[in-house]
Design brief:
Shape: elongated
Largest sheet: none
Strand content: under 5%
Radius of gyration: 14 Å
Structural class: mainly alpha
Distance between the termini: 22 Å
Number of strands: 0
Oligomer: single chain
Amino acid sequence: MEDDFAELHNILVELDFLRATFINVLQKYQANPHLHIRRAAAEGIVVLDKYRELYKALTVCVAAVVLHPAYKWEYFEVAVDNL
């Protein structure tokens, strides 16, 4: 996330990172009376899921992740297990 531009193979990874962060916020504030924090995190997850599905629908984006030496198909196998 330090780059000044987005690379195709990083977008999905960053969306998953942000989603995990929102899930952690939901868990952290589960018993907290601050409803607005939980609501904002839940809405963030909905938006990220929407864009993640749009991104996965683009074959070129999936190919960019699969062809990247650090991720390959293993990224999708691990990501499916963590959903």
